[in-house]
Amino acid sequence: MGKITTLAEFIVERQRDFPYAKGELSSLLSAIRLAAKVVNREVNKAGLVDILGSHGEENVQGEEQQKLDVYANEKFMNALRAQGEVCGVASEENDDYIVFDDENTYNGKYVVLMDPLDGSSNIDVNVSIGTIFSIYRRVSPAPGPATLEDFLQPGTEQVAAGYVIYGSSAMLVYSTGNGVNGFTLDPSIGVFCLSHPDMKFPETGKIYSINEGNYVHFPEGVKKYIKYCQESDPGTRRPYTARYIGSLVADFHRNLIKGGIYIYSGITRSPNGKLRLLYECNPLAFLTEQANGFASNGFQRILEIKPTELHQRTPFFVGSKDMVAKAEEFMEMYKEQTV
Ligand code: P6P
User: Fold this and answer.
1) Is residue 202 part of a domain?
2) Among 106, 127, 131, 122, which residue's Cα sits nearest to residue 31?
3) What crossing angle do the helices spanning 7-15 and 24-45 adopt, rounded to 10°?
4) What CATH number corresponds to the domain at position 176?
5) If you write DSSP's letter for every residue of 204-224 in order, what string do you get?
6) Closest residue (by CA) to atom 13 of ligand 1?
7) Which residue has the least CA distance to atom 2 on ligand 1?
8) Which residue has its alpha carbon closest to ligand 1 atom 3?
9) N or C: which end of the chain has fewer CB within 10 A?
C-alpha cells in the first residue's frame, strides 16, 4: 500500500509553494479541516432525528437541536474566529458580513466567504450535501475591521477555494492556485487522506446537469443547448446522459470526476437564476479553472464578474471546457431571443 498523505501533511508540504507565507493560510485551511469533521459527524447523525429529536426541538438528552445549516454556520464561524488569521466572514446564513473584532483577528490577513451547508433541504432524503468556501486577502488596512470591499472582490483575486461533500464518504476538495486535490475522510482515525491528487475536468464529457422542469422558462440558447445534448451524433458522443441530483456540490463533484456540464440558468422571473456569485459560483469557478475546466454566466467568465452585493445571484455554466464553450455558442447565437 502506498504512503498515505494526510491533509495536514499536504498543507504543510504545499506551504513551500508560498515562500513568503508564514503559515497563516495553512493555519486557516486547518481550521476549515477541523470544522468539516465536526459538521460531518452531525450530518451523519441527521438520519437518526426520530431518535435524537428533529432539529429545532429537544432531543432525548434534552438538548436544543439546531437546524443543520445553522449548526454548520456556527461551527465554521467559531473555527475561523478561533484561528486568528481571518478578520471577517460572509455567509449564506447571515444577511451581512461578520467582523471578527477581537485583538488577534483585527490583524487577520484574510476574509472567508462560505455557504456552510448547501443543499441542506436534501438532508431528509439522505442526498449528499456540501460546504463551499472562498478565501481572499483583505484589501482594507490592518489592523482594523474588515470592510465590505474585502468581500466584493472579483473571483480572480481568490487565494484559495474549496468544498466539503458530505456523501457516501466525506471529502474535502480545495486549491490554493496550484491545482486541485481531493482528500477523503477516514472516519476510523478522523483524518482526511489524499485520495484524488491533481484533479482535472475531462476536456469533454457525456453528462449534462440542469433542472429541465424549468424548460419553458429558459432562455432560447439554453433550450437549444438542451436539444443539442439530446440529439444523436456518435462523433460527439451524443445523446448525452442527463444527471441532476439537485445538490450543487454533488452535481459538481460528479462532473469534475466524470466530465460534464452543470447549468443553473436564469429564467423569466429571475434572470440571474438562483445560485450566489460570491460563495457558490466563484469558489467552484476557481476550482474549475484550476482543474482545466471553465465557468461562465453564459456570456462572461465568472471569475471576472465585479461583485456589487454580498448575496447577488448569477447564471452558472460550469464544467468540461468544450461543453461550456458549446453552451456559450448557443447563448450567443440566440441571445436576441432571450425572453
Ligand atoms: P432547483 C440547493 O437548494 C441548491 O442551492 C443547489 O445545491 C442545487 O443545485 C440547486 O439549489 C437546486 O435548485 O431549483 O433545481 O431545485
Assistant:
1) no
2) 131
3) 160
4) 3.30.540.10
5) S-SEEE--GGGGGGS-HHHHH
6) 246
7) 119
8) 119
9) N
The cell for 237 is 458522443
pLDDT digits (tens, 9 = 90+) for 212-269: 999 999 999 999 999 999 999 989 999 999 999 999 999 999 999 999 999 999 998 9
What atom in ligand 1 is closest to the CA of residue 130?
7
- 192 shares its domain with 229: no
How far away, in angstroms, is 176 Cα from ligand 1 center?
26
Instruction: Provide the whole-model pTM.
Output: 0.94
316: its cell numbers? 452558472
Pair (261, 159) in one structural domain: no
| DSSP string computed for 277-329 | IIIIIHHHHHHHHHTT-EEESSSSBGGG----STT-B--EEEESHHHHHHHHH
Which domain CATH number covers 258?
Answer: 3.40.190.80
Q: Check if the beta carbon of residue 208 is closer than 8 Å to that of residue 261.
A: yes
Residue nearest to atom 5 of ligand 1 (CA): 119
In 3D space, the residue among 126, 87, 128, 130 whose CA is nearest the CA of residue 105 turns out to be: 87
Find the domain containing 69 and state its range.
Answer: 7-196
Q: Ligand 1 pocket, 118 CB below 6 A? A: yes
Do 224 and 290 share a domain, yes or no?
yes
Q: Is the pLDDT of residue 184 over 60?
A: yes
